[in-house]
Structure formats: C-alpha cells, structure tokens
C-alpha cells in the first residue's frame, strides 16, 4: 500500500463536565417570565441537581472535542460485522427534523396527524413488500425488542391453541439477544449445533423439535455470513410439530430483492432499521426493530395498529388477540421517518444495495483468504469471517489485529463473535464503501499479517495513533467507577 | 444512486477477482424455493428535491405550535431545545458511530455516556445509572423485573396513577412470566392510596409515579414505611417529567430503590412519541442486577484516564439466557442529547427552568379556578394538572379544537370514572397570552 489514512493529528484533551464551568454561568436562553411566582410546598421542595454551570461556547467546544475522539461511518470504513455500518444519508436528518414530524404530539387526534399516521401505514406496507410477509408492526424500539415481540407472539399463539410450550430452539451461532429474549418470555433455550458447512441441518432440528417446543429462532443469513440454505426444510420440520419459525433479520441487508421470507417458511421476522435501512447508529441507538408476520399471526401484533379507512388513516385497538404494547407510544417514530426517506430515495433499486453489499464482502474474502484463516470457504453473503489461526504461531491474537487496524485508520471488525468460531474476525463492509476504500482495507490487513510475522510487538502494543493506548478493562470491572 | 459508489467498470473488476461472471452468480447458492417470484414492487427512486417536497407535504398536515395552542403533555412535553444541541448531535463522529466496543477509537461516546450516567444519578438522587433504556414505559417494566430478581418475590403493586400506557407495557412484559400485578387505587386528592398495601408481604416492588399521570407530586416520604417496613418491597419510582426534580426532591432522596422514567423532556423533540429515552437508576447495592449497558472509568496502558463498557457479565452477549435483560442497542444518541441538555442548563438553569414551568402551571391553574373551573385533585402539581369541566364538555373540547386550541388530554379514554376530566400541561413555551385565551374560552 502507498499511504495509510491513519495518522496522528492534533487531538485536544478535555476534562469532565463537572471539572469545568463556574457557578452562575448559563448555556440556556431562558424564555421570559411573564407570570408571578407561585407558592411551593416546602416539605416537597428540594435543592435541584448538582450540575456544573457552563455557557454555550463551553458546551460546543466540549462536545466537539469529545466527538473528535470517535471514529464514525462519516470518518472511516467501519466494517463491524453484524452491525451493517452503512452510510447514513444526510437528507434523512432533514426529513426527521421537519416541524410537523419532530414536534408532533403522540396524542394528537387522528384528523390532526394524517401525514405522520399515513407514513406509519405506508412504511409497514413497504416492509411487507420487501420481506414477502403480510403484516408489520413498527413499535419495537430495537432488534432485541423485536425479538421479544416475536417471543410474545410465540407465547400468545400457543396459548390461543390451548397449549403452553416451554422451549425454543436456538442455533449455537445466534446473537446473545436471542436466548435472552426467549428467556424474558419464560422459554428455555435449546441450543442447535450448526453442521460442518456452518448452517442448520433439518434432521437435527427435527430430532430436537417436540410438542413442548414453541418453535425456532433462526438468523438468516446467519452470523457466519452464510445463507441458511436448508431453511425451508428446517421450517417444515418445525411446523410439522406445531411450532413457529422466527427469523432474526439483523442480516437482511444481504438479501433484499432476492429472498422471499414467507417462501422460506418463516412466520415472524424482525428487521433492524438502523442496519439495513440506513438510520444512524447514534453511538448505540436509537434503533428500530419492526416485526413482520404472516397473515395468520397478524392478530397478535402489538396495538395500536395504523389502519386505513377509505382515504383516512386511523389508530385501531380492535385486536383482541394482540400481545399488547411494547412502547408507551408507537415506537421510535423519528427513526421510522429516516427509514421511510431511505426507501423512497432508493425505491425499486433496493436490490442493488444487497448486490453490492454481497459483492464487497466476497471481494474482501478473496483478497485476504491466502493470509488469514477462513473457517468456511464457501460463497459468503454480506460479511466474511476469518480467524487468527495463521497468526497464532507468532503469538498474535485477533485482538492485536483489531487494535493495529486502528493505526491504519479503520474501525476494527466485530471480533470474537460468533462464539462458535475461535478468534473470529467478522468483516461487513456494506455497499457504501468504494472499491478504493476496500482496496485500502485489504492492503492494511495484508500489511498487518506481514507485521505479525516480522514485528509482532508492533501489534501487541497497538494502537499507536489512537487518543489512548489499550484500556484496562479488568480494572474497570473489578473496581467499578460508574459515575463522577 | 448517490449512496452507491461502484461504477460498472469497478463492478466488473471486482467480479473478476471473486471469479463470478455476473453479480447474480453471488446469489446462485440461494435455493429457488426461497426466492422472490417478482421484483420489488416499489416506486422509482425519488430525487432529493422530490423527497423534500413529498415530506414537506406530509409534515404540513400535522397540528403544531404556534398555529395551534397545544395544552397537552401526558408523557410528551414541549420544551425549548437549544440550537447548539441540535447541531452538536449531528456531528458525524457521534451520530454515525455505534456501541463503543473498541474503546480506543470511541472515547468520545464513552466519556459522553459516563457524563450522562453521572448527571442522571445526580438528577435522580441514586448511586448508579445505566446508559439508557428504550423509553419510560419499558424502563418501568425492566425495573419491576429487576425487583423480582432482587427480592425473589413474584408480585408487584402498581399505582393506577402511573401513566396508563406504561402500565400496559408492564402488563405485556410480565404476561408470559406469571408474575402478578396488583393495582393500587388513587385517592380523592389525586395521589396513590396505599391503604390496600396493609398486610401485603409478598410484594417485590411497589411502583409509583411522581409527578404522577395527573401531575400530582406523590408524598413519597410518607409512603416509605408502608413500602419498605410493612410490605418489605422495593420502592420503584417512575416519572414522565424529570424536569420536576429541579424544584421537588429527587426520588432517591425520598427512599426510591429504583427510579426509572422518560427523558424526552430533557432536550428531545416529541417526534410523535419517539425516540425518547428510558432513564434508569438504582441504589449501588443492586448494580449487578441492573439491566442495560454501563460505562466505567479506567486507565490506559500509559496510565491516562479513559472509559470502557463494563460489568458486561450481566449482559446478553456474555450471559445469553441468564442475562439481566435482552437489551442491546439502547437510545445512545438520545442519552447524548439529554446529557447536552442538562449540561447546557447547569444546576442553576435547571432549577430556574423547573420553577418557571411550575409558576406557569400555577398561574393557569389559578386563573381557571378563579373562572369557576373545578380542580378535582388537591395535591400539589408541577407543570400538569387535571381540570373538570361541566357535563357535555366534549362539545366544548371540539369547539376549541376548531379554534386550533387543544385543551389538554381527555381522561375518560383511560379512566372511565373521569368523564369531563382533562389533563392540562404548560411549559416555558406556553406564553401567558395563550393561557389567558384558554381561560377565556373554557370559562366562557
């Protein structure tokens, strides 16, 4: 490689909020007092919170400096596997900030919010079209709340059949949220091993499936970046014993316009709008985790549901079998607006998004497989997984490789996940990275592989250019200091 | 498409590297039985200009201030949001980053969340706060599940003066678990009546809200004995309007073991109900039973102060089915906004703004009462309160709506016994002139 994007620059130190300011400063423009003071009950009155007083320039500089200690998608390639760190279009922010959207009160009578109510209805229809399923709720606030919704539907469906089922099958490659969501609904998770091809085997699923088992949670494409090509047979095995099939759609960015989820035999699917549909990850949310279901399960979706009566949109609570409510109002509406804006911007070209996401991942796989160990050498979807096996002779681990990548100006991939692959390095470039950037990433990884053999110490002490050296996580956990 | 960088030549070159003839070949392994039979039935892409026009039209149908006077809060509040916060939130380094799994290149997010946790503990008067929950409602549900874990008891008591939609979310979360919910009534003063707690000792938690859904400040101090000594339960205090703690004592100062609620009023737009922010804090001794992410302070290899995600052995990615919650992505950017908002106000501003909200509501309450409007609940309130209009008030409410005045939230939808009752809210963004118009119309 000729030159790396990672370099040093002037980075500012910045204290904590309460180490700055001066009593009596004010960063807020207080609206005028046009009413007299009202008497306060002294028994109930308190002193108010102990916050430092700052002025507006203090605030602006504080957060600007802190922002400079971060890498975001806007700064560099962020190939965090399973998280789909694609470009977050700027126009989406404009739309979500429109006055009739950002300041809409959730209890407005429906006559006074037809536009936003209609947006919910139309986005549900679009997601139904993209997935192939029939009905959608936009209420879950993130993927794991979508999973919880799915598990509540499992529970409610079986109760409606007059049965209590106690177990859920979960592949060993699943995200930790899957068993945690199942447990919240009182289900015991039964792990399903994947086969030597990294996918589920219908025979094994059939053997594990019984009439105590509510169904299966499958991630497809799975967390190894592979399409579960036995999904239909797996679904048939589950349905044969009266179970339901839940699909974790965290990786849906790989299959838009190609796969019909309903034809795969899936009954319930959640999408992550902050992954596939370009809404910003925000340093850890807010996201949105819509849940799409077959016609048969639509009565169980959360309420209220947006319905269309002639040309008017209305909220309806008239779904007696509904699992109830997951969110005080209608979910993370501002995120839904951004996803709606994204879908309208791409329209029927959404398939191209998946095509390029898959092309980019396969291109990286080809570019690195001679120097990094590839545990499953078969066509991948939108992400590819390597391990540190070839670097182990030099006592170099996945962690060292990840940290060294920072020095080359890239955010590291997801590491040590999925748990079934020892030392996993999970790379998801997304469709929005150009060939030039990806070539730079491949060159950096190849250089790191060379360094691992020639100058391993360089990796073990990495990162060298970041704001801080490696952080002591053990100390943080042993002596928790969670507030100042 | 402007978000997709590849030129046809680049696609060609990349395909040849991976040994594929056409891009469709990369999907060849997907069985036919799993494929779509028709192309995506979506419209042609809109240009940015067309999209703006479409969205402007859609946005224009919403009733908003200042065209409408909206005296409605009920868990979603109109407060002024400083422009500096809106602009800072859009810094790409903050808003396009994700969960700070790699601390060396995420110190910005980590310090912001550490500061957020600290501000929340100071606001709520408790020892530890997490990095956020989805919203006030799910925060309450998670708090009750946490109380069940801590006490190993399986019943929870929930006040009817808690936001009705929060109670429905609690029901949804608890339905499949078999944990029982007991409802506590409210008394004639609008505060929760704890008399029915007498003799109840199977309770994991007693959940209250202050200010409650009717805007009334609960007398938490007086409830301390009934909850802790008599029922031996945890006191869970929910809220929808944390600005109240700028004027009134914090939940922690009054005996709460867990405080949880909605942070929307701390610098977030109403946005049709979301994204909001679940604030969640508890006493130090319960930290390992707490749901959600936590950021902690540590040092780097050179001994410099830094921050990391910590105590993650409680969380789903390590503990899987034994985790304290399934939450993964939370409301990071909303927590960031709330931290910026609290920092912008500072202690002095926070108190002043709370007082202004209180005084505005006090003024309106007083004027309405002078005009003959009934105030059914006598307990002190913050920036919301209940009025009772004469029989047939629905007509008056509709007439006001036609004049672009939304005279609060009708309560009969949530409480059948509260016909003709309306929940009125005013904040610092309600000018006296608007309030005077409301008084004139309602008392006419």
Task: Characterize the structure shown.
The complex is a heterodimer of chains A (484) and B (444). Chain A is α/β, with parallel strands linked by helices. Chain A contains 14 helices and twelve strands. A seven-stranded mixed sheet of chain A has the order 1-7-6-5-4-2-3, sandwiched between helices. The two termini of chain A are 44 Å apart. The mean pLDDT of chain A is 96. Chain B has two domains: 69-80 and 347-443, Aspartate Aminotransferase, domain 1 (Alpha-Beta Complex); 83-341, Type I PLP-dependent aspartate aminotransferase-like (Major domain) (Aspartate Aminotransferase, domain 2, 3-Layer(aba) Sandwich), CATH 3.40.640.10. In chain B, strand 9 (295-299) and strand 10 (305-309) form a beta hairpin. In chain B, helix 6 packs across helix 7 (164-174) and helix 10 packs across helix 12. The chains are: A alpha/beta (484), B alpha/beta (444). Chains A and B meet through helix 1, helix 2, helix 3, helix 4 and helix 5 of A and helix 1, helix 2, helix 3, helix 4 and helix 5 of B.
CATH topology heading of the largest domain in chain A: Aspartate Aminotransferase, domain 2
The overall pLDDT of chain B, averaged over residues, is: 96
Q: Order of strands across the widest beta sheet of chain B?
A: 2-8-7-6-5-3-4
Question: Which CATH class of the largest domain in chain B is shown?
Answer: Alpha Beta
Main β-sheet of chain B: number of strands, strand sense, barrel status?
Answer: 7 strands, mixed
Oligomer: heterodimer
How many domains make up the 3D coordinates of chain A? 2
Q: Separation of termini of chain B?
A: 59 Å
Structural class of chain B: alpha/beta
User: Judging from the principal axes of the Cα atoms, what is the shape of chain A?
Assistant: globular
Named CATH architecture of the largest domain in chain B: 3-Layer(aba) Sandwich
Uncertain segments of chain A of ≥5 residues (pLDDT<50)? none
What does the overall shape of chain B look like?
globular
Task: Quickly count the helices of chain B.
Answer: 12
Measured by DSSP, the beta-strand proportion of chain A falls in 5-15%
CATH architecture tag of the largest domain in chain A: 3-Layer(aba) Sandwich
Uncertain segments of chain B: none
Distance between the termini of chain A: 44 Å
The count of DSSP E runs of length 2 or more, i.e. the number of strands of chain A, is 12
Structural category of chain A is alpha/beta
Q: Largest chain interface and its two residue counts?
A: A-B, 202 and 205 residues
